[in-house]
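Page 42, continued from yesterday. The earlier attempt failed because a stray header line got pasted into the input along with the sequence. Redoing it now with the clean sequence only.
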Amino acid sequence: MSVYIFTGPTLSPEEGRAELDATYLPPVSQGDVYRASLDHPQAIGIIDGYFECVPAVWHKEILWAMTEGIHVYGSASMGALRAVELAAFGMEGVGAVFEAYRDGMLEDDDEVAVAHGPAETGYRPVSVAMVNIRFTLSAALKARVISPATRVALERIGKSLLYPDRTFPRILADATDEGIPAGELQAFRDWLPHGEVNQKKTDALAMLRVMRRQLAENPERKRVAYSFEYTDMWEHARRDAGQFERDGIGPTRTVVQEKLLDELRLDGESYVRARQGALLRFLAVERTWTLGVSVTPEILDATTQMFQRERGLLEPTHVERWREEQHLDGERFTRFLEDETRLRQVEELEEQEVASYLPDHLRAIGEYGRLLARARDKQRVLESSGFQNPDLTDAGLTEDQLLLWYFETRLGRPVVPDVRGYARSLGFEDEDAFRRAVLREFLYSVRKGSLPTDDNLH
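This time it went through. C-alpha cells are written below.
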C-alpha cells in the first residue's frame, strides 16, 4: 500500500506512523500533490500546508489526483480547508475542524494557522491555532473553570490577535489588562497544563485511523463524477511543478522537470522521440485502467524477470546498480514495473489495432518507403534464388551460428539469453517465426553481397 501524508506542526511523522504506515512529507505547498500523484499512490492525506510564505496547494492538483484514481483525505488544518472546498468533488474530510468549516461555524482561514519553526525543529509550533483556543475554552467552560462571559471575552481577545501572536500567556495578559476576574484567569491558568485541547492533532490522528481502516479493505481506484479540464494555466503549473525524486537515502527532494528536459532537448531529436514514447506509455497505461486490467503478483514477477533479462540485469548487484543510476528506490521501482506490466499487457490486448497504425507511424518518421522497398527486394531476391521456404541447410549454419551472426555481427550486441522472450517483445508470433525471419535476412545479405565476414561463424 502506497500512501503519502503531508504534515508538520500539527502532527509529527513519528506520531503519525503509530497510526498509519505511510510516507510522511513536509507541509504541502503548490505542486506537491501533483508531484506525489506521479508516483500513483493509493491515497494522499493532507494535514498541514503552507499558505503565506509560499503558494498554497492548488485545488486543481487535488482534483487531478482524484481523476487519477487516488483517494484524497483532508483534516485538521490546510487539509480541512481543502476538504470542505472540494467535498462535493470527492475529497474526504475528517474531524471536528472540518465539520465546523463545513457547517459554517468557522469561516476564516486564520483559524487553523500557526507560526512554527523550520524543518530542523520538526516544525515545532510557537503559537496556538484559534480553533484549538476555541475548543480549549469550551472544555474549560464545561469543566466550570471559567464562566460563559469569560469564555466569550477570551475568545474575542484571541481572535483579535494576529495568528503568530496567539498564545495563552499573551491572551491571559491581555485579559488581565481588560479587568477580567483574576480568580477565573488564575483558575484557567492552573487548569491549562492538563486541560488544553489540541483539536487539530486529534483530528489528524482520526484521519489516519479512517484511512487505515478504509485502505485495509483495498478499495477500488477513486472514481469521480466530473471531467477534468485541461487548461493552459494547468499545463504551466504542471510543468513548473516537476516531480518527486526519491533516492532512498535522504529526504524527498524536488527536481524541476524543465531542467531535466533541457538536457534532453539539447540532444536534438532525442527529445521528440522520448516525448512520443512517453505519450504512448501514458496512453497505454491509462488504457489498461479503462479495460479493467489487473496486475497480479504472478504477472508482475514475470514482467520483472523479463525486464531484467532484456537489459542484462542478471545479478542482484546489476539490478541494484541500475536502480541507483535511474534514481528508483524500492517503492518507485515496484510502481515502475507495475506500469511496465500494464504497458506490455495492453500491447498484447491491442496488438492488431496497434499494427494497423504502424504504416502511418512509419510514414510520419519517413521510413515507410525505405522499408517497403527493402521488403520487396528481399522477396524478389530470395524467390529468384529458390529460397521461398529456406532452412538452415541453405545457409550452411547451425542455429547457434545463425543467432551469433544476427546478434553479434548484424546488431553488434551479445546473444540474448532468452531468445523466446526477445522474439515476443519484437512482435513475432513465436521463436520459430523469429528464426525464420533471421534466416531470410542472412540469405538476403549473402545474395546482395552485404554479409559482413566473421570468422567465428565457421
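Notes: The first helix runs from residue 13 to 17.
Reminder to self: strip header lines before submitting.
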